[in-house]
Amino acid sequence: ADDAPAWLQAAEAPAAPADDVPAWLQGAADAAPAAPAADDAPAWLQEAEAPAAQPPASDLPPWLAAEAAPAAAGAAASEGGLPSWLQGVAEEEPGPPSPAARPAETPTPIRSPRVVEDENDSQSFLSGTELPSWLRPIEPERPKGEQPQEGRSLDWLRSLGDSEQGEEDSVPRVSMPVAQREPPSFQARPDQVLAAGLLRQLATTPYPAPIAPPTPAPVSRWQRIGLDRVLYGILLVTLLLALFVPVVTQPFQTANPSAPGAAEVGALLDGLDGDDVVLLAYEWSAQRSGELRPLEQAITSRLMAERTKLILVSTDMQGTLLSFDLIGPLRAAGYNREGDILLGGRDYVLLGYRPGGELALRRMAQDLRNELRSDFDGQDARPGLVASYPNGDPRFTGIHDLSMIVVLADTPQDVQGWMEQIHRAAPNVPLLFALPQEAQPLAQPYLRQPGVYALAGQRGALALLASDPQGNTQALERSTGQLSFSVVVFLLLLGGGAIGAAVTRRRAPREVTGGR
Fold first, then answer.
1. What angle, rounded to 10 degrees, do the helices at 457-466 and 262-270 form?
2. Cα distances (Å, whole numbers) of residue 428 to 133, 310, 353, 370, 399
3. DSSP 176
4. pLDDT digits (tens, 9 = 90+) for 402-454
5. pTM over 0.70
6. Are 48 and 56 in contact (CB under 8 A)?
7. 497 near 229, Cβ under 8 Å?
């Protein structure tokens, strides 16, 4: 307590003598306060206790001397008589006075900026903490228009926009004179003018009155029937007449019909015997039965007469079904049959359908015995007598060991496939094509090669039957007479139909105009 001033000791010990307490404190304890002496208390305390008394200017600090006396008294009373730096209140640094309060003639003081050069300085060490304004380092004043630190992160966007704007401004803009083009003038052609006038006339003219159609000319009975129906009827009657009345066809009958290559084919078929193997391919459809069925019968009858062994195959779906029709005649001729016992694979093998077209032909050309592994019934035909001798030796090793190949084809494409795949692999094996009349001219380039033969249509079948010394002569003559008579009648009807059509077309315009 010795180091405390006398006025504090008097406050803690009220029983102290009155002479030890300052006058301004004794006055506060008494009922009638007395003004403290000016020499015992500081000037700011005297001002707080006695606001009415105006202290001398020498006793006030500079920050109080700059303010007006009434404003300083009110601020000291509100703050408890202490400055802001003693109370510990973090106040912002007072900004510059407003233009209204600042005299116009007083220049603005320029602060000297403090530049922190060393990052290890104490101010940089405390730069991340929140400090009151009176402890913060003085920052240099920013020029007018400069943004604060927190707004500089977007400066690159503004600078980018400013640079683009500067580039646009830096590019000189040249104003090009725009030539005023006159609108093109169009001049209508005479035909367009005529068409426009006709269109205008049609738009203004009302619809004409409907005209009654002319009365059709009377149609005769022959015209209602039609010339084509008449010709078809005549052809049908003549064919039936030739079929049931053989005398009508007698002038056209002949015992020696001829066809190119028929004699050579007959000689080849007669030279086969029971030890020879012939590959018979069905590559035709049912719509060609009228021409290919007589050829099939003529060829198979010569083969069955010599008991030649056959391999039946087809790469056509309809041809596979047509090959089944030959099973009955083969069994009737004794093929694969010994009394009532059926012996599969003894005289013929039915391979059936081989898919793939030319690929199937290629497989047969490469290895024919491999195709006999499975016939139409799924049995292995290689141990049979068609593919092997009774002692087990193979009768043929490939397609080049066959005695003859017969192909019943209805299109030139079939001829091309067999020539390119089969005949190329076995050029020394005779190859016979049975074709319709319309396919022979298109396949003629392939048929001119050596070892290749062809018979076309019903005439080729009759020529092949005529080359058989054991053939039926009367049936052959009747067939040749019917065929020749039918051809003659067809040609006559064709010529008569052409003449009748020309006359009908010539009379039709005259009847429409009313002329006779």
1. 50
2. 121, 19, 26, 21, 10
3. P
4. 999 999 999 999 999 999 999 999 999 999 999 998 899 999 989 989 999 99
5. no
6. no
7. no
